[in-house]
Amino acid sequence: MIETLTIIIAIAFIITGIFIHPILIKKRRRHYKQLPFPILWNAVIENNLPIYYCLSKGDRQRLQGHIQVFLAEKQFIGCNGLLVTEEMKITIAAVACLLLLNERGEYFLRLRTIFIYPRTYFVNEIAKTGSYIVEEKRVARLGESWTNDQLVLSWEQVQYDTRNWQDGRNIVLHEFAHQLDQEDGEAEGVPILPRKLDYPIWMQVMTAAYQQLCHDVQRGRKTVIDSYGTTNPAEFFAVATETFFEKPHQLQKQHSALYKLLQSYYQLDPVQWV
Ligand SMILES: [Zn+2]
């Protein structure tokens, strides 16, 4: 009798987890999206994010809704004595949520905490330099994204990048693109795609564009996508995302298939914004 009861309770928990929990999350998010967007928050975005002026009224409203959800669900922690301000949280949320603007998916599924350093920070990196030789180096960082539930940013760099939109570099777009890539637990330049048949097309277009970039960089040619994208396919996806949002015209002109692929993935057309 007790065994049967235990099984029934376990099944009830599973059913709640599978069916009820997502409904509750959706309901909670709908509630956050409907909250009035504070005037002060809007002023911060207008001041720090020039691209905001290029968005349509509908896009702005959708972005504001996403920011409300993002701020309710993610935790921010200051590092090296940094006191996290509303301005920091709103600016980071606004840029990150551009990636999700057209209801593109989850709110960075794995991410829970964003650590913010005041400026460039340093970490100890262990590198294998030979079969038995391991070297420890002190390395400067502007940001990083982890597969567990964390992301790190330098506030100084966030400010510089958001105010210098159109230079093709943006640490927030870069690290949050890594988060999208890492949602399946792997950082390999392939995020979760809507349909199975999307994967071969993704691989084909991304591989061709990645090889093209490697080829051009090797020959010393000027490229619209930053040469850091040659590091590996995961970095290529993050750097291509930065270019897609910040230099859409040039990317569309020089890598039309890649632009089309990212347009379809993000369900956005940044060419229309500029
Ligand atoms: Zn990266």
UniProtKB/TrEMBL annotation:
The chain crosses the membrane at residues 6-25. InterPro entries: MetalloPept_cat_dom_sf, MtfA_fam, MtfA_N. The keyword Cell membrane does not apply. One of its GO terms (cellular component) is cytosol. The keyword Disulfide bond does not apply. Signal peptide: none annotated. Gene3D superfamilies: Collagenase (Catalytic Domain), Glucose-regulated metallo-peptidase M90, N-terminal domain. Keywords: Membrane, Transmembrane, Transmembrane helix. It comes from the Bacteria. GO terms for molecular function: aminopeptidase activity; metallopeptidase activity. PANTHER family: MTFA PEPTIDASE, PROTEIN MTFA. This is Zinc-dependent peptidase. It comes from Chroococcidiopsis thermalis (strain PCC 7203). The lineage of its organism: Bacteria, Bacillati, Cyanobacteriota, Cyanophyceae, Chroococcidiopsidales.
